[in-house]
Automatic annotation (TrEMBL):
Species of origin: Drosophila navojoa
GO terms for cellular component: plasma membrane
Annotated PANTHER family: AQUAPORIN TRANSPORTER, ENTOMOGLYCEROPORIN 1-RELATED
Identification of the protein by name: Aquaporin
Record lineage: Eukaryota, Metazoa, Ecdysozoa, Arthropoda, Hexapoda
Membrane topology: Multi-pass membrane protein
Cellular compartments annotated: Membrane
Pfam families registered for this protein in UniProt: MIP
InterPro entries the UniProt entry points to: Aquaporin-like, Aquaporin_transptr, MIP
UniProt entry keywords in alphabetical sequence: Membrane, Transmembrane, Transmembrane helix, Transport
Transmembrane residue ranges: 45-66, 78-102, 114-133, 153-177
Domain of life: Eukaryota
Gene Ontology MF: a single term: channel activity
Family according to the record: Belongs to the MIP/aquaporin (TC 1.A.8) family.
Amino acid sequence: MNPLVWGLAYLTATQIFAILSGAHLNPAVSGAATIVGIMEWRLMLCYMLAQLLGALAGIALTYAAVDETRNNICLPPTLSHVTVMAIELLATFFLLLAYCAAWDTRSEGKYETLPLRVGFVYAALSFAIYPGTGAHFNFFRTFAAAVVNNTWVILWPYLAAHAAATAAAAFLWRFLFQEEEPEPMET
């Protein structure tokens, strides 16, 4: 699929769900929000359960919509696991920095532009990495694809990359860039 299409789809989903959930379409986003201080741990776990169920439903719909003979639905071409991990780590790191910037108190009053800012960052990063990794940015998306394809060996580079990117971006933002505590999300 075209990286621009992925970016516009993410922009659209962010626009729809930003008012409801802060556009936490991804467990890395929810994890970063918790580390930065705008989300409580219990709420993060609820969001992550919903994100996992959403990923499983999305891949099931994709599987139903494509030709049955197609293999590796939503899984990338084969690169070395270390290469996939490095690429996904950097891209997810930059995506999460875009979210951290949006949550920062200095961005107050600019939340309505979150879908555009994050959507275009997602599209740009997708253009850069899609051919090599599939531009997942989201471990639950990778896990759901592994379930449908019964391919488990690809999971660890994505899990390691997304967990490391979440911790690195959120801690970097919280302890180096954040000037004051953000407003916690309303539950």
